[in-house]
Amino acid sequence: MSFINNILKVFVGDKSQKDIKAIQPIINKIRSFEGPLSSLTNDELRAKTFEFKEKIKQARAEKDTKISQLKSEVESIEDIDAREDVYTEIDKLEKEAYEVSEKVLNEILAEAFAVVRETARRFKENTQVRVKATSKDRELSANKAYITIEGEDALWSNSWEAAGKTVTWDMIHYDVQMIGGVVLHQGKIAEMQTGEGKTLVATLPLYLNALTGNGVHLVTVNDYLAKRDSTWKAPLFEFHGLTVDCIDNHQPNTEARRKAYEADITYGTNNEFGFDYLRDNMAHTPDDLVQRKHNFAIVDEVDSVLIDDARTPLIISGQVVDGDRHEFNELKPFIDNLVAIQRQLANGFLAEAKRLFKEGNTKDAGFNLLRAHRALPKNKALIKFLSEEGTKQLLQKTENEYMADNNRKMPQVDEALYFVIEEKNNQVELTEGGIKELSKNTDDKFFVLPDIGTEIAVIEKSNLSKEEEAEKKEALFADFSVKSERIHTLTQLLKAYTLFEKDTEYVIMEGEILIVDEQTGRIMDGRRYSDGLHQAIEAKENVHIKEATQTYATITLQNYFRMYNKLGGMTGTAVTEAGEFWEIYKLDVVEIPTNRPIARQDKEDLIYRSVREKFNAVANDVQELVAQGRPVLIGTTSVEISELLSRMLKMKGIQHNVLNAKMHKQEAQIVAEAGKPGVVTIATNMAGRGTDIKLSDEVKAAGGLAIIGTERHDSRRVDRQLRGRAGRQGDVGSSQFYVSLEDNLMRLFGSDRVAKIMDRMGLKEGEVIQHSMMTKSIERAQKKVEENNFGVRKRLLEYDDVMNSQREVVYKRRRHALHGERLKLDIANMIYDVCDSIVEKNKLTKDFKNFEFELVRYLSITSPVTEADFASLNETKITALVYKSASEYYQNKNNRDANEAFPIIRNVFENPDNHFERIVVPFTDGIKGMNVVTDLNKAYETQGKQLIADFEKSITLAIVDEAWKKHLRKMDELKQSVQLAVHEQKDPLLIYKFESFNLFKTMLEGINKEVISFLFKADLPQQNTQIQEAIDEIQQDHYIESKEEVLNMEEQAERHRDAVQNVNAPQQHTITETIVRDQPKINRNDEVTIKNVLSGQTETMKFKKAEHLLASGQWVLVQK
């Protein structure tokens, strides 16, 4: 492939060189401002910022004036259609104003960058920078130690605290850093090598884009970097009157967090930006909102955020009341036993394979070897045997034979096994033998699903009464639901036991299962595996199994960052994923040249037969490097390997530090020590990302930092990131990877070419092979994995895109309700949609009686058309007449409600003993009630109209939120149930899109009818309307914020394979969770107490009367 790329470069040129060539004139222009700016006084330099802001303001003035004028006019427009046109015009003008701002930013870019560079130069060359004190300087000096006020002057020191250390400014932007700044401003990704000063690069586009006043976000991968960088670079911006803050310094949903977003430049972690967006879309008042519009974001370590984290959606959830109770602890002994007896089987097959192989009977040896591999592929004895000459080739040859013709002969291999593990696809599947073994001490059908199609046919042919037939079918579906969940629980437990290893995929700390990020080796706080897998691992490790949760709000980082008007990113490793960045985010990758040539020596991989030989070689080489006085950074792929190597080095008496997921809190300190002579640091892939390892002259003379990679990672990016720890800013250094045929990458994806070459050369124990051809072969294996992972992420995005379009509709409607300004328009549209739905449905069935009934039920109006007109007029005409009648009724009702409420409001307002600011006014439609909070002063001034507006807001928010929560639950269930389509040779995604559209349409119709019905029927209670003061209560909602490890679609499909293996004609019924009753059964005539979830009102009545209220979702049963 590289050969083809080289030929293409000859004809079409190198993309990177073209990109840099296009930017060079801008760099020359920046340089041209150096002379004029250096001659300015400090105050004149600061005045440039005001000049830039004025230029942007003047360019936008016409558009901004027009927007302001339309916003003030729109409230007085009564005609709904005319109002909608005005809002459309406002949206169009806001877009045009943004484009004007961008045009001006491009015009002033060169001079603005030059101003930042000149400021950096003055801070470097002067211990203090004296300027005339502004009110902002005086305000900042109160809590910023680096600003001192002396009379009329402000003294800015060039030393300050950042992340607990004193830093002295010593940086001026190089040309290559200015190129990087231009790339970021253009909304592209700048690939810059480690040590090239990415943090400094970001100051240029941050300053430029902050001039618009619309806010700029700098996104980092962890809070340490967010807090460090926001304080390290802040004085550069604050000197020019720009405000800087970091959201991670403040608690969520607080005034301080809101102020952080109001700053010109806001630093923070990707998770917190995403969670704040979700929290804002669960807010109950505009005062609870913290974020502004998503203007421009620069993502640091962009590959980590947008690629590695792309499979992990952000989720805010709450406990499911009496929710899904999986049988993990009950089923665990079954799996314990099953895994133990399969291990014995696997060892038997392996022993037989070894014997036959020794005798030269390769056919039968291969068969037994394949059985052992499909039984337990991670068996240490098996992995060891597969590193011997000819064994891996035999396994691959046998596997190819039995997989031919769509796995035609594979059942012969699997029939002796209890379960089969497909390690490449991360899948495990119970066999018939496994189900028989599990059923030994239980009912024969305990783990077998009922054949839905056959059973339904039997029920329908039994001549039962309607009630009995319905009861039998319900019992059948309940049995299917319980057993499918049981089989799912078994499968997840099997995965936990066979595919997930402690100290590799997860660690146990303080009685909790914590996932380790395979890319960085960091612990992923608050992240859980989805679909019951995390609970299965908790059961396996005997830790507390956390309760199931229900999703309240969710978004993937992919879709969150696609909301920004402009997005840029920077990293040391992006080119290998350039295709994905463009396809998913439309982000171009530009390689930025290094300031000095790279002097690091990247050696070809050393390849050994076994892991033991490889680690012995690593330990010996480390001993040699330490003797030379060189620091060594050893990169490992798991906690387990880092601890193994640590033990080996201790045995050799080599002092060293260990940096892994269990010790991540000491990261900064360990990395700071890593560049000292003879210091050895063992690190998982985190390797101090975002922190430079600085070397002394003594170390440079000895050969610089030595990087040792103990295994190739699935992704070339992670390997490049590790190599990049050495050789910063032209420093000397070296990198060497050690590989064995037993490594996961080589076992699963390495071609048999490597094994063949090693066999041909007849390598003995401990001997090594090193050649560029072998390194390329390994990189091809990595490319296979990368392509597979890209497919998974793209598929996940396709699923989330369906949810995203729905999320945008609901959140937009919610925003309108929250702010109130466009709510009247939404309500008018809802009225029209309800009218249209009623007319369409009844016109189709020609049912005038039901048409009249539904008009009264939902809109409280009589029919504006006669039965004859209903039959003769078309749908559009009838809908228009009904809408006109309903709108007039609603307008009159609102006026009536305001007139009735005003005397009560006036009494409270004019009572000298009352000092209320906000009051609570009750409304009821006769069935359910709602307390509406309103501003007393505004309600009095508008003669009750503000109360009606607040009533509309409250009911819309309450109903939308409840419906959205239920919809998310249904969508979760749908995503699981559509995987059954795989067995019918159908694409689950297509079915998901179709079904989710129907679910969404049903939800919107339900919201419309519920909101309109309540608005049309609800009034102030006629007697004893008690007005109380609205007191701010701390919200009692306990939300859980998490990032879930999402299974790919093949993994999800696999969970259903067992569920349908005994079903001839599978029906698509939603898979629901097992619910165990812990209360006595309620009979229809029993007295029950129910509670309204919106108003808190309680009622006691017979259960048969309460059933329809409970079914509406607005009322819940109160347990006695």
UniProtKB/TrEMBL annotation:
Domain Helicase C-terminal residue range list: 610-786
EC number(s) given by UniProt: 7.4.2.8
Predominant subcellular localization, coarse grouping: membrane
UniProt KW keywords: ATP-binding, Cell inner membrane, Cell membrane, Coiled coil, Cytoplasm, Membrane, Nucleotide-binding, Protein transport, Translocase, Translocation, Transport
Molecular function terms from GO: ATP binding; protein-exporting ATPase activity
Cellular location(s): Cell membrane; Cytoplasm
Superkingdom field: Bacteria
Gene3D superfamilies assigned: Helical scaffold and wing domains of SecA (1.10.3060.10), P-loop containing nucleotide triphosphate hydrolases (3.40.50.300), SecA, preprotein cross-linking domain (3.90.1440.10)
Ranges where the Helicase ATP-binding domain occurs: 179-338
Coiled coil (UniProt feature): 42-73
Enzyme category, top tier: translocase
Pfam families: P-loop_SecA, SecA_DEAD, SecA_PP_bind, SecA_SW
InterPro entries: Helicase_ATP-bd (IPR014001), Helicase_C-like (IPR001650), P-loop_NTPase (IPR027417), SecA (IPR000185), SecA_CS (IPR020937), SecA_DEAD (IPR011115), SecA_motor_DEAD (IPR014018), SecA_preprotein_X-link_dom (IPR011130)
Domain SecA family profile: 5-770
Family recorded in the similarity comment: Belongs to the SecA family.
Subunit structure: Monomer and homodimer. Part of the essential Sec protein translocation apparatus which comprises SecA, SecYEG and auxiliary proteins SecDF. Other proteins may also be involved.
Function: Part of the Sec protein translocase complex. Interacts with the SecYEG preprotein conducting channel. Has a central role in coupling the hydrolysis of ATP to the transfer of proteins into and across the cell membrane, serving as an ATP-driven molecular motor driving the stepwise translocation of polypeptide chains across the membrane.
Name of the protein in question: Protein translocase subunit SecA
Organism from which the protein derives: Flavobacterium columnare
Gene name, Swiss-Prot/TrEMBL: secA
